[in-house]
Amino acid sequence: xxxxxxxxxxxxxxxxxxxxxxxxxxxxxxxxxxxxxxxxxxxxxxxxxxxxxxxxxxxxxxxxxxxxxxxxxxxxxxxxxxxxxxxxxxxxxxxxxxxxxxxxxxxxxxxxxxxxxxxxxxxxxxxxxxxxxxxxxxxxxxxxxxxxxxxxxxxxxxxxxxxxxxxxxxxxxxxxxxxxxxxxxxxxxxxxxxxxxxxxxxxxxxxxxxxxxxxxxxxxxxxxxxxxxxxxxxxxxxxxxxxxxxxxxxxxxxxxxxxxxxxxxxxxxxxxxxxxxxxxxxxxxxxxx
Length: 289
Hints:
Layout: H1 5-13, H2 19-25, H3 31-38, H4 45-51, H5 57-65, H6 71-78, H7 83-89, H8 97-104, H9 109-116, H10 123-130, H11 135-144, H12 148-155, H13 160-166, H14 174-181, H15 186-195, H16 200-206, H17 212-219, H18 226-232, H19 238-251
């Protein structure tokens, strides 16, 4: 094919270019031209097949992302020597059950993690990933799954990292969030109060949490109700109280603040009575009912 590289790239992108020409461009000396062919959603299978074996990594990655790629090409690319090519397959909307099965059983931990994040994950594959040797894979499953049975199973996981994944999962039920609010790990509880809305009873119990980090997370959480934050303004730990007061000041609408040219109306300074109950000696995250 004659002409400059730019000319050939333009030809490869042109919707009017004939399939026979695209097939010819698929073997172009320039990787830029081959990548342009590989990116076409209407690229003929005859052109994509050799590009899935292309010597240039970027070209193979483009094929991996192309919805027009056949399942055979995608399965081949899952075994590619380059990790970025393998991982690109997960973003392809044409991924089917066969490909998810290969991903969930792959030696590549990242491929298993990408499978764990898929909303269409089959129950048998989810059951497999619940027992994955990698805490990272189980955490990614925990944070993305919509399956109630999977959530129940992962609530029993002994690894804190996995339960932290559940603490950001919006598909958890009120009862499951209640369990997480009682989790033995302050890291789980801190993540939970930042990510998910909780029942009033759980919030009231967490006001007494033994972990300063949990209470500080509540003080600056956008999902914590204002009346809870107001109680934290009187927390026994000054860092918690200061965080709560600072958050209120930063989130207050500008129109509610007094105009700079007008003095704020004077009000009698009334000391606020402390509302926080004394820190109990109960186990962290295990409120007394």
